[in-house]
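lol forgot to send this yesterday, sorry. struct tokens for the thing we talked abt
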């Protein structure tokens, strides 16, 4: 809050308080002349007016509320909040800080999260034979706290955090077989991920299906953990300006010819041949999708030879994708959910996916992934 609004609200509050108190004191001090019978001599519709004192209980409550207001101003930042922090404090992230509504919220969230993490360790990890994750989670939390507090964190700290996240993968696999863990994970999914991926996790146009075995960034437990912690930023450039409309149509015809959904289309073989040449130019499509067009999980480039399409695999949809490009962003969930909830969510997603082996993509993915800049989806498949 700026000093102007802070001072304006403070001055207005004090003026109202002083005005009400002044009126009350004036009423208490004022003593009208009364007749011998105790009336003021005023008569309204035959009703005589007496001068009776204000009820004692009413005065006690009124003055008590004024005293309470003054005490509130002292303990909390109600007088010039930008200058006066008040006497009240709360515990946030292990430190005693001045009370604010924001700090109080964080303090309560930490308290509630402590209850959750204790229950997670005692009733979920222990029963899933995954108690070994406790030490890794503690170390990971310390690293993340250092990252948050430091203006200039060590250059390799994020890499170390990503390595600790990857170490949780074996425990996620164990949690994926535990009914209690999956029950909590399903609730987390419905609350946070279903808005994009659907309550059945089968996705929609532009939002990946999480129940199959086709994953843009890898479907192993370590990959899912990395995706949830760091988010993903995927994008395909628009190619119309580089290769022209004829090039767009040729490449789309070639892509359609190698895809798993080419049945029902009369392919233009001349365009297929032209498109193959354009596709395999070193700085064009082959750079991300690979020589075999099966994609690379290191870059999130999809496999173009199957029948699974995020934005549609018909001829016109493929043309639109090549012509205008695509952009997909999934937010990072680390700061919102925390490490324990991400483990449960990752276990649930891992349990949903089809574990049937499939041909490997062109390049392996590293455990680390860049932080996402803006939100859109929930888990990249």
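and heres what i got for the seq, position by position
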């Amino acid at each position: 809050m700026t000093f102007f609004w802070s001072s304006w609200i403070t001055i207005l509050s004090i003026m109202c308080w002083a005005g009400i108190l002044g009126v009350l004191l004036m009423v208490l001090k004022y003593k009208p002349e009364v007749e011998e019978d105790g009336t003021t001599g005023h008569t309204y519709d035959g009703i005589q007016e007496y001068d009776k004192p204000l009820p004692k209980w009413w005065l006690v409550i009124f003055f008590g509320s004024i005293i309470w207001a003054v005490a509130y101003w002292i303990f909390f930042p109600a007088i010039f909040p930008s200058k006066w922090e008040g006497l009240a404090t709360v515990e946030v992230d292990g430190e005693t800080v001045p009370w604010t509504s924001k700090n109080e919220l964080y303090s309560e969230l930490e308290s509630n999260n402590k209850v959750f993490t204790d229950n997670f360790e005692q009733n979920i990890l222990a029963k899933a034979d995954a108690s070994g994750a406790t030490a890794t989670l503690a170390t990971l939390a310390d690293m993340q706290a250092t990252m948050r507090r430091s203006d200039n964190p060590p250059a390799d700290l994020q890499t170390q955090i990503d390595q600790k996240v990857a170490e949780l993968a074996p425990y996620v696999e164990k949690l994926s077989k535990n009914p209690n863990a999956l029950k909590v994970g399903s609730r987390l999914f419905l609350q946070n991920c279903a808005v994009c991926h659907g309550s059945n996790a089968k996705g929609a146009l532009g939002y990946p299906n999480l129940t199959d075995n086709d994953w843009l960034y890898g479907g192993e437990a370590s990959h899912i953990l990395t995706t949830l912690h760091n988010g993903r930023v995927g994008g395909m450039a628009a190619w119309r300006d580089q290769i022209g409309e004829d090039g767009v149509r040729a490449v789309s015809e070639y892509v359609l010819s190698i895809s798993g959904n080419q049945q029902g289309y009369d392919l233009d073989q001349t365009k297929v041949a032209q498109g193959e040449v354009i596709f395999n130019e070193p700085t064009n499509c082959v750079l991300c999708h690979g020589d075999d067009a099966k994609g690379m999980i290191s870059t999130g480039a999809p496999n173009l030879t199957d029948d699974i399409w995020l934005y549609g695999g018909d001829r016109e949809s493929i043309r639109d994708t090549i012509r205008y490009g695509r952009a997909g962003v999934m937010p990072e969930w680390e700061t919102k959910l925390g490490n324990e909830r991400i483990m449960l969510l990752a276990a649930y997603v891992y349990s949903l996916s089809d574990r049937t082996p499939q041909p490997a993509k062109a390049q392996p993915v590293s455990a680390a992934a860049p932080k996402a800049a803006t939100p859109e989806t929930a888990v990249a498949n």
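The radius of gyration is 33 Å. anyway ping me if u want another try
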